[in-house]
Amino acid sequence: MNGVDWLLDSNVVIGLLKGRAEAVALAETQGLLLNRSAVSQITRMELLGFPGLTEREEMLIGDFLNDCRVVLLDEEIERQAIRLRRTGLFKLPDAIIAATAMTWRLRLLTLDHGLSRGFDEVTRS
């Protein structure tokens, strides 16, 4: 994907917005730049669809999403997500996020150790 290096999982975005040490450290270690980052359409839905989201939180999330790119689902991501889901290593949302990173050849940044292990396993083979 032109000009984009990273795909951010929902937990990384939430962690960065809340200033959580683990997310900030990951971003710093990776040299993360928001203008060179993307989120999956599913991540946008997870972030904005959170029950009890306040107006202020919605505004902060919207501002964050405006600073990076949102990758829409397409048939290639769908095919890849189905393949990943069938491995038994991923829940559907995680399969979509991993498929998005794989399809666009982006580095996946996540704090979900299960997703990270599964992603590493399928990208090594």
Describe this protein with a few key phrases.
125 residues, alpha/beta, Rossmann fold, four-stranded parallel sheet, 7 helices, 4 strands, 62% helix
Task: Please give a structural write-up.
- By secondary structure, the protein is α/β, with parallel strands linked by helices.
- It has one domain (6-124): 5'-nuclease (Rossmann fold).
- It is built from seven helices and four strands; from the N terminus they run βααβααβααβα.
- It has a four-stranded parallel β-sheet with strand order 3-2-1-4.
- The longest helix is centred in the middle third of the chain and has 13 residues, at 55-67.
- The chain is globular.
- The two termini are 22 Å apart.
- The model has no long low-confidence stretch (mean pLDDT 95).
Stretches with pLDDT under 50, minimum 5 residues: none
Count the helices. How many?
A: 7
In percent, how much strand structure appears in the residues?
5-15%
Which class do the helix and strand fractions yield?
alpha/beta
Distance linking N and C termini: 22 Å
The percent range for helix content is 55-70%
* CATH fold category name: Rossmann fold
User: What count of domains describes the coordinates?
Assistant: 1
Report the principal-axis shape: globular
CA gyration radius, whole angstroms: 14 Å
Largest sheet: spatial strand order? 3-2-1-4
Query: Helix and strand succession?
Result: EHHEHHEHHEH
CATH 2nd-level architecture: 3-Layer(aba) Sandwich
Mean pLDDT figure = 95
Specify the biggest β-sheet: 4 strands, parallel
The name of the CATH superfamily reads: 5'-nuclease
CATH class reads Alpha Beta
Number of strands: 4
